[in-house]
Request: fold
Amino acid sequence: MVRATITTRPLAATETGHRTELLYDDGSNDEVLLCAVHGGEVEPGTAEQALELATRLPAASCWACLGYDDETDAFDEWHPPSSAVDTEDYPLLAEIADRDFETVISFHGLGDDRVLVGGGTDAEVKRTVAARLEAAVTLPVETVSDGPYAGASPNNFVNWLAADGGGLQLEQGLSVREREADAVVSTLEAAVAEGVL
Reply:
């Protein structure tokens, strides 16, 4: 059995901050990919959730970007739209982009105190995941298929990384990311293990 390793690569730097790309991968996995393009101080807690879930699953990889800035808002400095993520700008993502993963989940932060389950995956899958999350966390959970947080565009990396063109995008309010992150990770772990995702 090949063990996964963590590789990091600096992506960009300013006088007061930086952004780093991270890949946790065994070099061949094509089953599950967990993503957090806005980790670090950009959308705190998302990269930690993605990496934690990857380490709990028997066959999973994790790709994340972590942005930090000491003087300006990391969100303003290091928050590319998910539909603008391109392998030319992310060398570690380029290493896994052609694998056609069976399951892709992308963790995001949300300014509102709620959880949104979106992405290009099947509506029934979104409803099932939303119901499970609603039972696990204290915030309201909704499914979304359109609008700014839906993640349904085929240009969104969560979708083009998935073999069937449909990944799952999870938008979470800060209180969930801070206090109920493990409940989210455990719920998704069970969903993957049971074949829901």
Q: What stands out?
A: The longest strand covers residues 60-69. Residues 5-193 form a domain with the Aminopeptidase fold (CATH 3.40.630.100). The helical segments are 46-56, 74-77, 91-96, 123-136, 157-160, 174-179, 181-193. The CA atoms of residues 21 and 90 lie 7 Å apart.
